[in-house]
Design brief:
- The complex is a heterodimer of chains A (241) and B (206).
- Chain A is α+β, with helices and mostly antiparallel strands and 241 residues long.
- Chain A has one domain.
- Helices cover 36% and strands 23% of the residues of chain A.
- Chain A has seven helices and ten strands.
- Chain A has a six-stranded antiparallel beta sheet. A two-stranded antiparallel sheet of chain A has the order 7-8. In chain A, strands 9-10 form a two-stranded parallel sheet.
- In chain A, helix 1 packs across helix 2.
- In chain B, a hairpin with a 2-residue loop joins strand 1 and strand 2.
- Chain B has a domain of 143 residues.
- The two termini of chain B are 34 Å apart.
- Chain B has a two-stranded antiparallel sheet.
- Chain B is an all-alpha fold and 206 residues long.
- The mean pLDDT of chain B is 87.
- Chain B is globular and about 65 Å long.
- Classes of the chains: A alpha+beta (241), B mainly alpha (206).
Amino acid sequence: MATKKINTSSNVYTILYAAVMVIVVAFLLVFVSQTLKERQTANVINDTKQQILSALNLRDLPDVAGKYAEVIKADYLMKADGELAEYEGEFNTSYKSEFDNGNLHVFEASVDGQTKFIIPMNGLGLWGTIWGYIALDEDRSTVYGVYFSHSSETPGLGGEIASLKFQNRFPGKTVADNGEVALKVLKFGKADKNSPFEVDGVTGATITSTGVNSMINKVLSAYIPFLTKQCSEELNVESND
Amino acid sequence: MANKNSEAFKQPMWVNNPVLVQILGICSALAVTAQLKPAIVMGLSVTIIVAMANVIISLLRNTIPNRIRIIIQLVVVAALVTIVSEILKAFAYDVSVQLSVYIGLIITNCILMGRLEAFAMQNGPWASFLDGIGNGLGYAAILVIVAFIRELFGSGTLFGFQIVPQCWYEAGYLNNGLMIMPPMALILVGCVIWYHRAKNKDLQEN
């Protein structure tokens, strides 16, 4: 600066400065994004596996991938009649587009020698998307555990659907009754404690609680053929293994 | 010079606090203070980003064309936030999930543009760095005060741990639902400003 003063307010300088800056920043961002992409994808896959395992009440695991490989025995895509067909392809981290295309995903897990089924769910809360996983016992009707998460619900209100306090209200409840989804999330305090179908929502977050209720209803309704199938019927795919 | 640097660091902590005196960053102060944990994370993130952006702008300050300086500042801030967010996603995935939308909100935090324009454009990198840290911590301090009150009275917890004993609830105590709503954050910030002005008489307008 001391040797030669550049005229920083000339048009040419301004345009050149802006152009150089844009190019430098663009290269920087592309470089950062490219170098970190692999790690980020691995993190997302790991996180999705942790979420699936959370529905089985296996939370905060040190080795998620190892536990996942040990617990999850298979995953299936359900056909319209409720038959299961083994899923082939890469590990999926979003089940929304699958569901929207009529492909229903089911995970089969084995916990302490017992078979559990996990169903991924997607829905809408107050501010953005919510999602979760529900694990069912072998009878395909009793809830074994649930996991919910959200993209942008209010912390302390709707965000509480991600808390254990809320999720612990689900295990032991019954999902369906007479061929219809009966599991309901009601306004806080409205649920009958003795009812096998009713669960209290989150205090002060009625819209998010209703969102969870609609999500469960919408997703599980599509799984009714699967849920109502007798558990004595062996899965065709298992014999192929 | 040393004195000026320490002033740049100390002033924004209380006497010239960005939230209380400059009234910057109010919107995010309302959004993230329902619980202590996000408030602290947000406070620290803003501190780091203001300090880094201040240093970069301070280094460039003699070359920046005057007519597009605001755009340059915005590009620097946006690029920094994006890079930090990408790095968090790769190396501290849990933290990035915690921050979720807040990290993007940092770009729109008025404290950044305010400090870049008011301080970094005129001062050297080291002073600007201290100014950034000071303002960030001053902002974080207000977030923590407001979040402490809101979480304690709104949810009966601190950092998610139950503080208000169960027997109080059984005796009829109720959490204050208004505390969790954004308007209450504004009222609390207002109360802190009131106290601050009462203590610093030279800020009072006649």
